[in-house]
Specification:
The chain is α/β, with parallel strands linked by helices and 304 residues long. Helices cover 39% and strands 13% of the residues. The protein has two domains: 1-56, Arc Repressor Mutant, subunit A (Orthogonal Bundle); 58-303, Rossmann fold, CATH 3.40.50.1360. The longest helix is centred in the first third of the chain and has 16 residues, at 2-17.
Length: 304
């Protein structure tokens, strides 16, 4: 697996080249110390460690480090660009999450196709209890019909699901205000700050956007938003290339976590790739909304 190989190389590099301790690596990558030890052993058996670390392409690691430094990220994982980019990215994202699951982990999940597919690829040990909390309304993308049928996402007895029982957007600001204060909805939204991991997608303003597919917007709406400076959306809230949230009435009709809250959460993981999302990714990075980016090689090269 490309994700696991990258992680093995990263751990081996930090341990043998940068001289970090296993505990320091554990903290920097948000992994348990036992997993760091396991991957160091794999580095030996897979011949990653010989007399030196056997990197296929040291430039690849340099690109990742440049992006981390430029955008103040905790980490970045880059998968090969492919014709089936969404699947490659979501498999990598699922593996990233699996490596960070411990007992009683709470995971916030965002709205959209990328996050839904990531959840569908999860394979988590039955020994762990995991709680999933939706960041917004729009029930479809949190329900079993949107999840890979091979996944145990909805059948594992150790999983708890808290899904906001509301649409993503309503017809007026007043209705949104009332719904957001309703006890069943407020109870779930109040859980969000206590999460261990938050997984979100990054939306671009094109015809393939989930918000268009689901009928919340049409292409002409997006053209108008572009004239206002919009380059992308997080949790259906639009921002410019610098990450500034636009002052739009439509934001007031959402049943959703404010994207400003993302800055206060631990381990916000964004899953997004494809050059059509480049500006949306840059805006999200500049806005400081995410901690970890999982993307493809083409986007990674464009970011530096």
């Amino acid at each position: 697996m490309k994700y696991e190989n990258d992680l093995i190389v990263k751990i081996a590099w930090q341990y043998y080249i940068e001289g970090m301790t296993q505990n320091e690596i554990s903290e920097s990558l948000n992994l348990s110390r036992m997993k760091v030890i396991k991957y160091l052993e794999k580095a030996k058996t897979n011949n990653v460690i010989q007399f030196k670390i056997n990197l296929e392409d040291t430039d690849h690691l340099k690109v990742q480090n440049k992006i981390k430094e430029k955008y103040n990220l905790k980490d970045i994982y880059v998968v090969p660009t492919s014709s089936n980019n969404v699947d490659s990215l979501t498999v990598a994202a699922a593996q990233y999450i699996e490596d960070r699951i411990t007992s009683d982990t709470m995971i916030n999940i965002g709205y959209g196709e990328a996050v839904s597919k990531t959840m569908g690829h999860l394979r988590i040990s039955n020994k762990y209890k995991v709680t999933f909390v939706s960041l917004s309304g729009g029930v479809k993308f949190y329900m079993p019909t949107a999840i890979d049928t091979r996944s145990d996402y909805y059948t594992n007895p150790n999983y708890n699901h808290y899904i906001v029982p509301a649409p993503l957007s309503v017809s007026s600001e007043l209705i949104a205000e009332h719904l957001n204060q309703e006890k069943p909805i407020k109870k779930i939204l109040d859980m969000i700050p206590y999460s261990n991991i938050t997984v979100i997608g990054i939306g671009a303003l094109n015809d393939r956007a989930t918000l268009i597919k689901e009928g919340y917007f049409n292409p002409s709406d997006f053209e108008i938003l572009k004239t206002r400076g919009a380059v992308g959306d997080l949790l259906s809230q639009f921002y410019d290339i610098h990450g500034n949230i636009l002052d739009l009435d439509l934001h007031k009709r959402l049943i959703s976590t404010d994207i400003g809250v993302l800055k206060s959460l631990n381990n916000v993981v964004a899953v997004a790739g494809g050059l059509e999302k480049k500006d949306a990714i840059i805006g999200a990075l500049k806005g400081g909304y995410i901690d970890v980016l999982i993307t493809d090689e083409t986007v990674a090269q464009s970011l530096v």
